[in-house]
Design goal:
338 residues, alpha+beta, Ubiquitin Conjugating Enzyme, five-stranded mixed sheet, 7 helices, elongated
Amino acid sequence: MHPCDPTMAAYLADWQAKLNLTIRYQRWSARYTEAAPFRREIELLGPIAGTASECRIPYKDGVTTVDLVNGRPHMGEPVELAVGEQSFVLASVEGRRVRLAFDLEHLFEVPGEIQPGLILEAVLGAALPLAAAYVQDYDWQRERAEFSSWMVASVDGMVRNWKNAIRDNEYEANRLTSQISGLVRKNGELREQIVALEATTRPAQEQKAAEEFAALVKMMPSPVGSVEVDYGKLSIVLTPLTLEHDSTDYHMGSYTLTITADKVHIWSDAGFSYPHPHVSSDGVPCWGNLGPGIGKLLGEGQYAALVSVILEFLHSYNERDAYRHIETWDPDYNSDDD
């Protein structure tokens, strides 16, 4: 409501009380009004902003004028003002919207010879009850259909998600079943090994250990530099080695192997962040097809043979599976050349 026009505000407030509905007034409207959610209120829209033209209306013994903006409204049910034998379309009703062809505020501010009440009772007196009836009789059919579609789509979406969850759960169950089967089989193998080891006498175990240590000592002073058990780990230092690739010799320096019952870590004594092209920065080797053999030697405690296989590994290079290219170990290597 225009705060500077108390007469107009009082007029529309009286209509709100009679219709028991809110009247939302907007002085100017857009050329195309977008579809808005339904509300239990009437929209009273002024004309599209533009150049005003005069509508000459016979009145009493003369003629008066009403300023129309961009002509009469063309959408909805027309509402006419009859003056004598002539009629003038000054508004239209489209659902709960009442569109005016004239500036309502200007009519109150500059009423001219015809008082606002004459036009408004003829125009709004016909238009506002039509809009009110539309609001009262609105059946929410469109919203109900949209709500129904939304609910159905939500149910369909949940069903799809649940079907996907069932499929994923079945896949996981099969994977876990396979994993459980593998663990049971592995436990069986471990039990057999435990029985075999427990059946071995202590002197026999000590004899095997002595033979294995003697085999390591035979590898000294090269390629093995030293053998030591430290903090429960077997520590073997290898003498410096050279890796030949593409007719180039790369001096890799010496390595320290730390070996536990089921793991081998390889460290660079020369201080390289990556000890070897096929060893990660945390000392974990990428064994490739040597993995099964490494595991077997660890399980059987054949450490001298294990060192021989590791030496073979350290003298090998495959650029497709490397953490770092072998050129990194070239003394003249420059990372800007990559």
